[in-house]
Amino acid sequence: MIKELGEKFTDIFKRNMPDAFVFALILTLITGLSAWIWVGTSPLVILESWYKGFWMLLEFGMQMVLLIITGYSIALSPLLSRGIDRSTRFIQTPRQVYVFIILIGILLTLISWGWVVVTAVIARELAMRVKGVNYLYLIACVYLSSGMWVTGLSSSIPLLLNTDNNFMIRAEVLSDIIPIKYTLGSTLNYAVIILFITLIPFLMILLIPKNNKGKELSELLGKEKDIHLGTIEEEAEGLKLPFKAVSDNLNNSVILQYLIALMGLFYIGYHFISKGFDLNLNIMIFIFVILGLILHKTPIRFGISMKRASSNISGILFQYPFYAGIMGIMIYTGLGEKLAGWMASVATIDTYPFFAYITGGFVNFAIPSAGGEFAVVGPSIINAVKEIGSGLPEEQVKAMISRAVLSIAYGESLSNLLQPFYLLLIIPVMGAGIKLQARDVMGYLVIPFSILFIIESILVLWIPI
After folding, report:
1. Closest Cα partner for 444 from 198, 204, 217?
2. What is the mean pLDDT of residues 455-463?
Protein backbone atom coordinates (compact mmCIF):
# COMPACT_ATOMS: atom_id res chain seq x y z
CA MET A 1 0.00 0.00 0.00
CA ILE A 2 2.62 2.55 1.07
CA LYS A 3 4.90 1.59 -1.85
CA GLU A 4 2.07 2.03 -4.34
CA LEU A 5 1.28 5.42 -2.81
CA GLY A 6 4.89 6.51 -3.20
CA GLU A 7 4.90 5.47 -6.86
CA LYS A 8 1.60 7.30 -7.38
CA PHE A 9 3.08 10.55 -6.05
CA THR A 10 6.09 10.03 -8.30
CA ASP A 11 3.82 9.71 -11.32
CA ILE A 12 1.92 12.87 -10.30
CA PHE A 13 5.13 14.88 -9.99
CA LYS A 14 6.42 13.64 -13.35
CA ARG A 15 3.23 14.72 -15.05
CA ASN A 16 2.77 18.07 -13.33
CA MET A 17 6.00 19.41 -11.85
CA PRO A 18 7.96 21.60 -14.27
CA ASP A 19 11.73 21.91 -14.51
CA ALA A 20 13.44 23.54 -11.50
CA PHE A 21 14.07 26.68 -13.56
CA VAL A 22 10.38 26.97 -14.50
CA PHE A 23 9.60 26.51 -10.79
CA ALA A 24 11.83 29.51 -10.07
CA LEU A 25 10.11 31.62 -12.74
CA ILE A 26 6.64 30.81 -11.39
CA LEU A 27 7.75 31.59 -7.83
CA THR A 28 9.11 34.93 -9.07
CA LEU A 29 5.71 35.90 -10.49
CA ILE A 30 3.83 34.71 -7.38
CA THR A 31 6.16 36.62 -5.06
CA GLY A 32 5.93 39.79 -7.15
CA LEU A 33 2.13 39.63 -7.31
CA SER A 34 1.95 39.02 -3.54
CA ALA A 35 4.06 42.12 -2.87
CA TRP A 36 1.81 44.17 -5.17
CA ILE A 37 -1.58 42.90 -3.90
CA TRP A 38 -0.89 42.24 -0.21
CA VAL A 39 1.80 44.77 0.68
CA GLY A 40 0.71 47.41 -1.83
CA THR A 41 4.17 47.83 -3.33
CA SER A 42 4.26 49.55 -6.71
CA PRO A 43 5.30 47.48 -9.74
CA LEU A 44 8.38 49.66 -10.23
CA VAL A 45 9.59 49.08 -6.65
CA ILE A 46 8.99 45.35 -7.12
CA LEU A 47 11.10 45.37 -10.29
CA GLU A 48 13.84 47.34 -8.56
CA SER A 49 13.76 44.91 -5.61
CA TRP A 50 13.95 41.95 -8.00
CA TYR A 51 16.93 43.41 -9.84
CA LYS A 52 18.68 44.40 -6.60
CA GLY A 53 18.23 40.90 -5.24
CA PHE A 54 19.32 39.27 -8.51
CA TRP A 55 22.97 39.69 -7.53
CA MET A 56 22.71 38.86 -3.82
CA LEU A 57 23.71 35.20 -4.16
CA LEU A 58 26.64 35.56 -6.55
CA GLU A 59 29.16 34.70 -3.84
CA PHE A 60 26.95 31.90 -2.55
CA GLY A 61 26.43 30.56 -6.07
CA MET A 62 30.17 30.48 -6.73
CA GLN A 63 30.66 28.71 -3.40
CA MET A 64 28.13 26.07 -4.50
CA VAL A 65 29.93 25.56 -7.82
CA LEU A 66 33.28 25.12 -6.07
CA LEU A 67 31.71 22.87 -3.45
CA ILE A 68 30.41 20.53 -6.15
CA ILE A 69 33.49 20.36 -8.35
CA THR A 70 36.03 20.11 -5.52
CA GLY A 71 33.99 17.41 -3.78
CA TYR A 72 33.53 15.54 -7.06
CA SER A 73 37.24 15.87 -7.79
CA ILE A 74 38.02 14.05 -4.53
CA ALA A 75 35.61 11.31 -5.54
CA LEU A 76 37.45 10.82 -8.84
CA SER A 77 40.67 10.04 -6.99
CA PRO A 78 42.01 6.45 -7.10
CA LEU A 79 42.02 6.23 -3.29
CA LEU A 80 38.28 6.92 -2.90
CA SER A 81 37.49 4.66 -5.83
CA ARG A 82 39.34 1.80 -4.14
CA GLY A 83 37.51 2.55 -0.88
CA ILE A 84 34.14 2.30 -2.61
CA ASP A 85 35.26 -0.92 -4.29
CA ARG A 86 36.04 -2.42 -0.89
CA SER A 87 32.70 -1.31 0.54
CA THR A 88 30.83 -3.29 -2.13
CA ARG A 89 32.09 -6.46 -0.51
CA PHE A 90 29.68 -5.72 2.33
CA ILE A 91 27.02 -3.77 0.39
CA GLN A 92 25.62 -6.17 -2.18
CA THR A 93 21.87 -5.54 -2.38
CA PRO A 94 19.82 -2.45 -3.29
CA ARG A 95 18.26 -2.33 0.17
CA GLN A 96 21.71 -2.23 1.76
CA VAL A 97 22.68 0.59 -0.62
CA TYR A 98 19.66 2.70 0.36
CA VAL A 99 20.21 2.24 4.10
CA PHE A 100 23.96 2.81 3.88
CA ILE A 101 23.54 6.01 1.85
CA ILE A 102 20.91 7.39 4.24
CA LEU A 103 23.09 6.72 7.28
CA ILE A 104 26.34 7.99 5.73
CA GLY A 105 24.44 11.03 4.42
CA ILE A 106 23.09 11.80 7.88
CA LEU A 107 26.58 11.44 9.38
CA LEU A 108 28.26 13.66 6.78
CA THR A 109 25.65 16.42 6.85
CA LEU A 110 25.74 16.51 10.64
CA ILE A 111 29.29 17.74 10.11
CA SER A 112 28.46 20.09 7.25
CA TRP A 113 25.51 20.44 4.89
CA GLY A 114 27.87 20.85 1.92
CA TRP A 115 29.04 17.27 2.36
CA VAL A 116 25.85 16.09 0.67
CA VAL A 117 28.07 16.30 -2.45
CA VAL A 118 30.26 13.53 -1.00
CA THR A 119 27.16 11.45 -0.26
CA ALA A 120 26.01 11.93 -3.86
CA VAL A 121 29.37 10.77 -5.20
CA ILE A 122 29.38 7.63 -3.05
CA ALA A 123 25.78 6.89 -4.03
CA ARG A 124 26.53 7.13 -7.75
CA GLU A 125 29.54 4.84 -7.45
CA LEU A 126 27.54 2.25 -5.50
CA ALA A 127 24.76 2.39 -8.09
CA MET A 128 27.34 1.52 -10.75
CA ARG A 129 28.52 -1.51 -8.78
CA VAL A 130 25.33 -2.98 -7.24
CA LYS A 131 22.68 -4.34 -9.59
CA GLY A 132 18.99 -3.61 -9.08
CA VAL A 133 19.32 -0.15 -7.51
CA ASN A 134 16.49 2.22 -8.46
CA TYR A 135 18.68 5.22 -9.21
CA LEU A 136 15.96 7.85 -8.99
CA TYR A 137 14.90 6.52 -5.61
CA LEU A 138 18.55 6.51 -4.49
CA ILE A 139 18.79 10.21 -5.37
CA ALA A 140 15.74 10.82 -3.17
CA CYS A 141 17.52 8.98 -0.33
CA VAL A 142 20.58 11.22 -0.73
CA TYR A 143 18.45 14.37 -0.73
CA LEU A 144 16.41 13.26 2.27
CA SER A 145 19.52 12.43 4.31
CA SER A 146 20.87 15.95 3.76
CA GLY A 147 18.04 17.36 5.90
CA MET A 148 20.11 16.53 8.98
CA TRP A 149 22.36 19.56 8.38
CA VAL A 150 19.96 21.78 10.30
CA THR A 151 20.67 19.87 13.53
CA GLY A 152 24.43 19.76 13.05
CA LEU A 153 27.64 21.73 13.18
CA SER A 154 26.87 23.89 10.13
CA SER A 155 23.34 24.91 11.15
CA SER A 156 23.53 28.58 10.20
CA ILE A 157 20.80 30.13 12.37
CA PRO A 158 21.97 28.74 15.77
CA LEU A 159 25.58 29.54 14.84
CA LEU A 160 24.61 33.08 13.91
CA LEU A 161 22.83 33.68 17.23
CA ASN A 162 25.87 32.38 19.11
CA THR A 163 28.09 34.96 17.35
CA ASP A 164 29.13 38.08 19.25
CA ASN A 165 27.57 41.31 18.03
CA ASN A 166 25.44 39.54 15.40
CA PHE A 167 22.89 41.55 13.43
CA MET A 168 20.08 40.65 15.87
CA ILE A 169 22.05 42.22 18.70
CA ARG A 170 23.01 45.26 16.62
CA ALA A 171 19.34 45.75 15.75
CA GLU A 172 18.48 45.42 19.49
CA VAL A 173 16.14 42.49 18.80
CA LEU A 174 18.31 40.50 21.22
CA SER A 175 20.36 41.85 24.09
CA ASP A 176 22.92 39.03 24.10
CA ILE A 177 23.96 35.92 22.23
CA ILE A 178 21.99 32.67 22.54
CA PRO A 179 24.49 29.95 23.51
CA ILE A 180 24.58 26.68 21.58
CA LYS A 181 23.37 24.77 24.64
CA TYR A 182 19.91 26.31 24.08
CA THR A 183 19.78 25.32 20.39
CA LEU A 184 22.04 22.63 18.93
CA GLY A 185 22.75 21.24 22.41
CA SER A 186 19.10 21.19 23.46
CA THR A 187 16.93 18.16 24.21
CA LEU A 188 14.70 19.19 21.29
CA ASN A 189 17.58 19.10 18.81
CA TYR A 190 18.77 15.72 20.06
CA ALA A 191 15.22 14.41 19.68
CA VAL A 192 15.13 15.51 16.02
CA ILE A 193 18.51 13.82 15.39
CA ILE A 194 17.23 10.57 16.94
CA LEU A 195 14.06 10.87 14.85
CA PHE A 196 16.05 11.02 11.62
CA ILE A 197 18.47 8.23 12.48
CA THR A 198 15.75 5.79 13.59
CA LEU A 199 12.78 6.67 11.38
CA ILE A 200 14.20 7.61 7.98
CA PRO A 201 16.05 4.36 7.14
CA PHE A 202 13.02 2.31 8.22
CA LEU A 203 10.60 4.54 6.29
CA MET A 204 12.65 4.48 3.09
CA ILE A 205 12.86 0.67 3.25
CA LEU A 206 9.06 0.58 3.33
CA LEU A 207 8.89 2.92 0.33
CA ILE A 208 11.34 1.04 -1.95
CA PRO A 209 9.63 0.89 -5.38
CA LYS A 210 8.70 -2.51 -6.75
CA ASN A 211 9.33 -1.65 -10.38
CA ASN A 212 12.93 -0.78 -11.26
CA LYS A 213 12.63 -1.34 -15.00
CA GLY A 214 14.55 1.31 -16.88
CA LYS A 215 15.61 3.05 -13.66
CA GLU A 216 18.99 1.50 -12.95
CA LEU A 217 21.93 3.79 -13.60
CA SER A 218 23.35 1.51 -16.30
CA GLU A 219 20.02 1.67 -18.15
CA LEU A 220 19.65 5.43 -17.74
CA LEU A 221 23.14 5.98 -19.11
CA GLY A 222 22.32 4.01 -22.25
CA LYS A 223 25.00 4.49 -24.88
CA GLU A 224 26.87 6.84 -22.54
CA LYS A 225 28.03 3.88 -20.47
CA ASP A 226 30.01 2.62 -23.45
CA ILE A 227 32.03 5.82 -23.68
CA HIS A 228 35.22 5.19 -21.75
CA LEU A 229 37.20 8.29 -20.96
CA GLY A 230 40.03 6.32 -19.46
CA THR A 231 41.47 6.99 -16.04
CA ILE A 232 42.81 10.38 -15.05
CA GLU A 233 46.29 8.87 -14.94
CA GLU A 234 45.91 7.58 -18.53
CA GLU A 235 44.72 10.96 -19.78
CA ALA A 236 47.59 12.73 -18.01
CA GLU A 237 50.08 10.30 -19.57
CA GLY A 238 48.57 10.90 -22.99
CA LEU A 239 49.15 14.66 -22.71
CA LYS A 240 52.91 14.26 -22.39
CA LEU A 241 55.15 15.26 -25.28
CA PRO A 242 57.03 12.46 -27.12
CA PHE A 243 60.30 13.87 -25.83
CA LYS A 244 61.57 15.10 -22.47
CA ALA A 245 60.38 18.62 -21.65
CA VAL A 246 60.49 21.00 -18.68
CA SER A 247 56.76 21.66 -19.07
CA ASP A 248 55.93 17.97 -18.62
CA ASN A 249 58.16 17.80 -15.55
CA LEU A 250 56.28 20.72 -14.01
CA ASN A 251 52.85 19.40 -15.05
CA ASN A 252 53.58 16.06 -13.41
CA SER A 253 55.52 17.31 -10.39
CA VAL A 254 54.46 15.64 -7.16
CA ILE A 255 56.86 17.83 -5.17
CA LEU A 256 55.38 21.11 -6.47
CA GLN A 257 51.82 20.04 -5.73
CA TYR A 258 52.65 18.66 -2.29
CA LEU A 259 54.44 21.88 -1.31
CA ILE A 260 51.25 23.81 -2.01
CA ALA A 261 49.18 21.15 -0.23
CA LEU A 262 51.49 21.40 2.79
CA MET A 263 50.91 25.16 2.92
CA GLY A 264 47.17 24.48 2.84
CA LEU A 265 47.37 21.91 5.63
CA PHE A 266 49.26 24.35 7.82
CA TYR A 267 46.60 27.00 7.27
CA ILE A 268 43.75 24.55 7.98
CA GLY A 269 45.40 23.63 11.27
CA TYR A 270 45.92 27.31 12.13
CA HIS A 271 42.27 28.08 11.26
CA PHE A 272 40.81 25.50 13.66
CA ILE A 273 43.33 26.20 16.41
CA SER A 274 42.67 29.95 16.33
CA LYS A 275 38.93 29.93 15.60
CA GLY A 276 37.70 26.68 17.08
CA PHE A 277 35.47 24.36 15.08
CA ASP A 278 34.44 27.07 12.62
CA LEU A 279 33.38 24.91 9.65
CA ASN A 280 32.08 27.56 7.26
CA LEU A 281 31.66 27.17 3.51
CA ASN A 282 34.96 28.81 2.60
CA ILE A 283 37.14 26.66 4.85
CA MET A 284 35.25 23.54 3.78
CA ILE A 285 35.87 24.27 0.07
CA PHE A 286 39.50 25.00 0.89
CA ILE A 287 39.77 21.62 2.66
CA PHE A 288 38.30 19.93 -0.43
CA VAL A 289 40.84 21.70 -2.66
CA ILE A 290 43.79 20.64 -0.49
CA LEU A 291 42.51 17.06 -0.25
CA GLY A 292 42.15 17.00 -4.02
CA LEU A 293 45.73 18.18 -4.46
CA ILE A 294 46.97 15.43 -2.14
CA LEU A 295 44.88 12.64 -3.64
CA HIS A 296 45.63 13.45 -7.28
CA LYS A 297 49.36 14.02 -6.61
CA THR A 298 50.23 16.12 -9.69
CA PRO A 299 48.94 19.42 -11.14
CA ILE A 300 47.92 17.87 -14.45
CA ARG A 301 45.89 15.10 -12.79
CA PHE A 302 44.18 17.57 -10.48
CA GLY A 303 43.33 19.79 -13.46
CA ILE A 304 41.85 16.84 -15.38
CA SER A 305 39.75 15.84 -12.35
CA MET A 306 38.39 19.39 -12.00
CA LYS A 307 37.57 19.51 -15.72
CA ARG A 308 35.61 16.27 -15.47
CA ALA A 309 33.88 17.43 -12.29
CA SER A 310 32.80 20.70 -13.96
CA SER A 311 30.89 19.11 -16.82
CA ASN A 312 27.39 19.36 -15.38
CA ILE A 313 27.04 22.56 -13.31
CA SER A 314 25.06 24.77 -15.70
CA GLY A 315 21.90 24.55 -13.56
CA ILE A 316 23.54 26.30 -10.63
CA LEU A 317 25.22 28.94 -12.77
CA PHE A 318 22.02 30.38 -14.22
CA GLN A 319 19.34 29.50 -11.66
CA TYR A 320 20.84 31.00 -8.50
CA PRO A 321 20.35 34.63 -9.64
CA PHE A 322 16.64 34.01 -10.19
CA TYR A 323 16.19 32.65 -6.67
CA ALA A 324 18.21 35.62 -5.41
CA GLY A 325 15.76 37.89 -7.25
CA ILE A 326 12.86 36.28 -5.38
CA MET A 327 14.78 36.86 -2.16
CA GLY A 328 15.21 40.52 -3.14
CA ILE A 329 11.45 40.97 -3.58
CA MET A 330 10.80 39.39 -0.18
CA ILE A 331 13.36 41.61 1.56
CA TYR A 332 13.09 45.00 -0.13
CA THR A 333 9.31 45.20 -0.54
CA GLY A 334 8.65 44.20 3.09
CA LEU A 335 6.69 41.11 1.97
CA GLY A 336 8.74 38.74 4.14
CA GLU A 337 8.44 40.93 7.22
CA LYS A 338 4.68 41.31 6.72
CA LEU A 339 4.22 37.56 6.37
CA ALA A 340 6.24 36.89 9.53
CA GLY A 341 4.35 39.62 11.38
CA TRP A 342 1.00 38.11 10.42
CA MET A 343 2.08 34.64 11.53
CA ALA A 344 3.37 36.03 14.84
CA SER A 345 0.18 38.02 15.47
CA VAL A 346 -1.98 34.90 15.65
CA ALA A 347 0.43 32.90 17.84
CA THR A 348 -0.03 32.25 21.56
CA ILE A 349 2.28 30.94 24.26
CA ASP A 350 1.10 27.42 23.40
CA THR A 351 1.20 27.67 19.61
CA TYR A 352 4.10 30.01 18.75
CA PRO A 353 6.57 27.14 17.99
CA PHE A 354 4.16 25.69 15.42
CA PHE A 355 3.63 29.05 13.72
CA ALA A 356 7.40 29.63 13.63
CA TYR A 357 7.77 26.16 12.11
CA ILE A 358 5.15 26.92 9.44
CA THR A 359 6.72 30.30 8.69
CA GLY A 360 10.15 28.77 8.21
CA GLY A 361 8.78 26.18 5.81
CA PHE A 362 6.58 28.56 3.83
CA VAL A 363 9.10 31.36 3.34
CA ASN A 364 11.75 28.82 2.31
CA PHE A 365 9.98 28.39 -1.02
CA ALA A 366 10.79 32.01 -1.85
CA ILE A 367 14.11 32.29 0.03
CA PRO A 368 15.84 28.88 -0.03
CA SER A 369 18.67 30.07 2.20
CA ALA A 370 18.40 29.65 5.96
CA GLY A 371 20.50 32.71 6.77
CA GLY A 372 18.70 34.91 4.23
CA GLU A 373 15.30 33.73 5.36
CA PHE A 374 16.10 34.33 9.03
CA ALA A 375 17.24 37.86 8.25
CA VAL A 376 13.76 38.49 6.81
CA VAL A 377 11.44 36.72 9.28
CA GLY A 378 13.61 36.29 12.38
CA PRO A 379 13.22 39.77 13.94
CA SER A 380 9.40 39.73 13.70
CA ILE A 381 9.09 36.26 15.21
CA ILE A 382 11.57 36.90 18.03
CA ASN A 383 9.85 40.18 18.93
CA ALA A 384 6.50 38.36 19.00
CA VAL A 385 7.92 35.67 21.29
CA LYS A 386 9.32 38.35 23.62
CA GLU A 387 5.91 39.98 23.74
CA ILE A 388 4.18 36.65 24.42
CA GLY A 389 6.68 35.91 27.21
CA SER A 390 6.47 39.37 28.75
CA GLY A 391 6.65 39.10 32.55
CA LEU A 392 8.22 35.64 32.53
CA PRO A 393 11.74 34.99 33.92
CA GLU A 394 14.55 35.93 31.52
CA GLU A 395 15.81 32.35 31.35
CA GLN A 396 12.37 31.12 30.29
CA VAL A 397 12.06 33.78 27.58
CA LYS A 398 15.49 32.82 26.24
CA ALA A 399 14.34 29.20 26.07
CA MET A 400 11.17 30.29 24.23
CA ILE A 401 13.22 32.26 21.69
CA SER A 402 15.50 29.26 21.22
CA ARG A 403 12.51 27.00 20.57
CA ALA A 404 11.14 29.46 18.02
CA VAL A 405 14.52 29.74 16.29
CA LEU A 406 14.88 25.96 16.03
CA SER A 407 11.31 25.70 14.76
CA ILE A 408 12.09 28.14 11.94
CA ALA A 409 15.20 26.14 11.06
CA TYR A 410 13.42 22.77 11.07
CA GLY A 411 10.56 24.11 8.95
CA GLU A 412 13.01 25.63 6.47
CA SER A 413 14.92 22.37 6.16
CA LEU A 414 11.86 20.12 5.83
CA SER A 415 10.22 22.16 3.06
CA ASN A 416 13.33 21.56 0.94
CA LEU A 417 11.77 18.15 0.26
CA LEU A 418 9.15 19.93 -1.84
CA GLN A 419 11.47 22.69 -3.10
CA PRO A 420 13.91 21.57 -5.85
CA PHE A 421 16.46 24.33 -5.22
CA TYR A 422 19.02 22.28 -3.29
CA LEU A 423 18.68 19.37 -5.68
CA LEU A 424 20.98 21.59 -7.76
CA LEU A 425 23.75 20.41 -5.44
CA ILE A 426 23.05 16.74 -6.18
CA ILE A 427 21.96 16.66 -9.82
CA PRO A 428 25.30 17.83 -11.27
CA VAL A 429 26.97 14.85 -9.59
CA MET A 430 24.34 12.13 -9.84
CA GLY A 431 22.85 13.34 -13.13
CA ALA A 432 26.07 13.26 -15.15
CA GLY A 433 25.45 11.45 -18.45
CA ILE A 434 21.71 10.94 -17.95
CA LYS A 435 18.51 12.87 -18.53
CA LEU A 436 17.44 13.88 -15.04
CA GLN A 437 15.04 16.51 -13.73
CA ALA A 438 13.77 17.33 -10.26
CA ARG A 439 10.32 15.96 -11.14
CA ASP A 440 11.83 12.46 -11.50
CA VAL A 441 12.81 12.49 -7.82
CA MET A 442 10.44 14.74 -5.86
CA GLY A 443 7.49 12.32 -5.81
CA TYR A 444 9.43 9.89 -3.63
CA LEU A 445 9.73 12.61 -0.97
CA VAL A 446 6.04 13.43 -0.44
CA ILE A 447 5.34 10.67 2.10
CA PRO A 448 8.55 11.32 4.11
CA PHE A 449 7.67 15.03 4.10
CA SER A 450 4.15 14.36 5.36
CA ILE A 451 5.25 12.01 8.15
CA LEU A 452 8.14 14.23 9.26
CA PHE A 453 5.86 17.30 9.23
CA ILE A 454 3.46 15.67 11.68
CA ILE A 455 6.17 14.34 14.01
CA GLU A 456 8.33 17.48 13.96
CA SER A 457 5.25 19.63 14.68
CA ILE A 458 4.66 17.57 17.82
CA LEU A 459 8.34 17.75 18.82
CA VAL A 460 8.65 21.55 18.51
CA LEU A 461 5.47 21.95 20.60
CA TRP A 462 6.17 19.47 23.39
CA ILE A 463 9.85 18.43 23.69
CA PRO A 464 11.65 20.60 26.26
CA ILE A 465 14.65 22.76 25.40
Report:
1. 204
2. 95
